[in-house]
Amino acid sequence: MAGRQRTDRRPDTVRTDAGADRNARYTLTSLLAALVPVSLARRAISVTVTTDRDVYDRGDPVEFTVTFRNRLPVAVAVPTPHQRRWGWTVAGELEASDERRYMRSRPSAFRFDRGERKQITVTWNGRFERTTDRHEFVVPDPGEYEIRAFVATREGRYQPSDTASIRIR
């Protein structure tokens, strides 16, 4: 067998300069995350919502940023009952729509490495989607509206979330 190269490693395994498999890190991370109680993992995730402005004209798009951060020095995994790991609402309406959402009922998890921060920028088109009689987009009335972002934990469980208020004139 002299001169033959070993090929029994998985093709997606990458060797680092130190000679260790990079995928071994993910295995160790997953193991450590599994040791953190779910109730602690849920509380370890902070959520922050910020908007680009406080006041918008009717129909203007609203850009907001959602930041999720694991405050623990170890990896965590927050179980979710469906494939949705996180979500956002405007005035209590999921993604500013009354459309029914069909989510795969297969459970998932929102995973974070130690101290990891995930940041997502979303642009709401400034209109509520209505699907009851006919499909249309409705410009909201002037007033205060709350944008909420959340980790999609099981109902009745602690749900990391944050809100930001905007005014539409």
Mean pLDDT: 82
Question: How large is the count of helical segments?
Answer: 2
Total separate domains: 1
Q: Which percent range fits the helix content?
A: 10-25%
Instruction: Identify the overall geometry.
Output: globular
Tally of DSSP β-strands = 12
Radius of gyration: 21 Å
Identify the CATH class: Mainly Beta
- CATH fold naming: Immunoglobulin-like
Sheet with most strands: strand arrangement: 2-12-11-5-6
CATH architecture: Sandwich
The CATH H-level superfamily is Immunoglobulins
What is the element string, with H for helices and E for strands? Answer: HHEEEEEEEEEEEE
Helix/strand/pairing class, anyone?
A: mainly beta
**What characterizes the major β-sheet?**
5 strands, mixed
* Termini gap: 77 Å
Uncertain segments: 1-24
Strand content: 35-45%
Protein name: DUF7974 domain-containing protein
Organism: Natrialba aegyptia DSM 13077
Please explain how this structure is put together.
By secondary structure, the protein is mainly β. It has helices at residues 22-35, 38-44; strands spanning 45-51, 55-56, 62-70, 76-80, 86-90, 93-94, 108-112, 117-124, 128-130, 136-138, 143-151, 161-168. Strand 5 (86-90) and strand 6 (93-94) form a beta hairpin. The radius of gyration is 21 Å and the shape is globular. The model is unreliable at 1-24 (pLDDT under 50).
